[in-house]
Design goal:
495 residues; alpha+beta; Rossmann fold; 15 strands; globular
Length: 495
């Protein structure tokens, strides 16, 4: 193991921050079930140890080591999951970064998580250049990476293909089956619930028996439709199994109750969606050029046999789907179908839709989104998504009060560029630009209680405002001035 020496000039320990909730890599590890009550977890470079504390309270056997706060060598022990979160970016010596990365990987049994600060998080106002990074006014060092740069570092140093888990976060698996399970769960959207307030008090856990049954029933209905079949108990998320065990209710009993709540129509829709998800999963598997799995888990084998009859048939469907993603004519046809179904809005070569409709848009469009996710990882707190067909980009928009404001403000956006695998993030709360979502009714369902109010407002805007609302639309100050001139007041939503 390398001996980690604190620099005289660079105060690395000053980069350790106190947290009120799990860090991004730790949260993803927990939500995807990689960090659980049966896996040992090592936070390598844990700082003040907040992630260790929170994960321990969530039932994960977590420990941490840090060269400044917890330097005891005995804490550096081999673990199932190792988190190297925001460590490499504070080390000013290139060789030491490599050594730290190698040591973290050596301590890993199943999965190593590596997270860094990205260029988009760079604040150059209060820094000066130093080596390949910057020195801050607090005498700390920061090296900002691009997504591609971090991926290349992991490949060159460790000789393995990492998986993008989120912007600036990669997972490196040593367990092939675990990697397969992670990718499949992500494709299907299966994650554990995590709320920071759960860490503060357990008083709310004392529920009546009837309420427990109702909650378990509702959760299981979702899981049955997600699997499009009866899932085995061990296939269900850990948090559900734990809740079921605490309730004292048998799985057989709760499944009987839940299955009675599912109509034949619901089940048929679930089967169709499942077949599309499996086709998409294996299309992305072909896209990634990752080594072929020696075996598929039992649940996946069961799904393939049930829905496709054979692996050969599924592979043929996946290959056809993958090739079709490059056919713009087919893509535009799918966009028109999505628009006709009121799932989004088309603006020339761009298609914008409500993130809630991701599983409803046509399969090829979901394929484009899966490619973006393979490059960037999963991006949280997204309200609108824009697919740029000709320029091969996907934009994720985070919006303030998207559900309750007729002119919600765009807080920021993340853009994934397929052509060069670049990820750019823009914070519109800091750049002085006021950007809003215009004509919001285009992204609302007609059953939304505020749809009619929003549509009337949007129609009035189009009637009196001579603006081009394509792209990002007009400057907000000019738009607001026009509203004021025409005495148009944005409506209040029904509560």
């Amino acid at each position: 193991m390398v001996k980690y020496q604190m620099s005289v000039k660079v105060l690395r320990h000053m980069t350790a921050i106190g947290r009120s909730a799990l860090s991004l890599p730790a949260r993803v590890l927990f939500q995807t079930g990689l960090a659980n009550d049966e896996t040992s977890f090592l936070d390598f470079g844990c700082g003040r140890g907040d992630d260790v504390k929170f994960l321990s309270e969530l039932g994960v056997p977590a420990s941490g080591w840090d060269p400044h706060f917890k330097p005891e060598p005995s804490l550096l022990k081999k673990s199932d999951i190792v988190n190297l979160g925001f460590v490499l970016n504070v080390i000013e010596n290139k060789q030491e970064r490599i050594d730290v990365l190698k040591d973290a990987y050596e301590l890993t049994d199943q999965c190593l998580s590596v997270a860094v600060m990205l260029h988009s998080q760079n604040d150059t106002v209060t820094t000066i250049p130093f080596n390949d990074g910057q020195i801050t006014t607090r005498q700390t060092f920061q090296k900002y990476y691009s997504q591609t740069e971090l991926e290349s570092l992991l490949i060159n140093v460790l000789g393995v293909n990492p998986i993008a888990a989120a912007p600036g976060v990669f997972f490196i698996f040593k367990n092939e089956a675990l990697e397969q399970d992670f990718l499949l769960k992500r494709q299907l959207g299966i994650i554990q619930d995590y709320e920071p307030q759960n860490l503060m008090s357990k008083e709310n856990e004392k529920k009546e028996k009837s309420e427990q049954i109702l909650r378990l029933n509702q959760n299981l209905v979702k899981h049955i439709l997600n699997f499009a079949r009866k899932p085995q108990l061990e296939e269900l998320p850990r948090y559900f199994r734990q809740q079921l065990e605490k309730s004292g209710i048998s799985y057989r009993r709760i499944f009987s109750t839940a299955s009675q709540s599912i109509t034949e129509e619901d089940l048929q829709k679930a089967v169709l969606l499942k077949k599309e998800q499996l086709s998409l999963f294996f299309a992305m598997y072909l896209f990634s050029t990752r080594p072929k799995y020696r075996s598929l888990n039992n649940g996946l084998q069961k799904d393939i046999k049930l829905h496709f009859g054979s692996m050969k048939e599924l592979e043929a469907k996946a290959k056809d789907l993958l090739y079709s993603l490059g056919e713009n004519e087919l893509i535009y046809s799918d966009i028109q179908k999505a628009v006709d179904d009121r799932l989004g809005y088309s603006d020339g070569d761009k298609f914008t839709f409500n993130a809630r409709n991701l599983n409803k848009i046509p399969l090829r469009l979901r394929g484009i989104m899966s490619v973006a996710e393979r490059l960037s990882g999963k991006i949280d707190d997204v309200d609108l998504i824009k697919i740029h067909i000709e320029t091969k980009k996907v934009s994720y928009l985070s919006i303030d009060k998207f559900g309750s404001s007729p002119l919600p403000r765009v807080l920021g956006r993340t853009i994934v560029d397929f052509r060069d695998n670049k990820i750019a993030t823009f914070d519109h709360t800091k750049d002085g630009k006021v950007k809003v979502v215009y004509l919001k009714s285009r992204f609302m369902h007609e059953n939304d209680p505020n749809y009619k109010i929003q549509k009337q407002f949007d129609d009035r805007v189009l009637e009196v405002c001579d603006f081009n609302f394509s792209g990002e639309g007009p400057r907000f100050d000019e738009f607001a001035a026009t509203l004021f001139k025409n005495k148009i007041i944005p409506p209040s939503y029904k509560k």
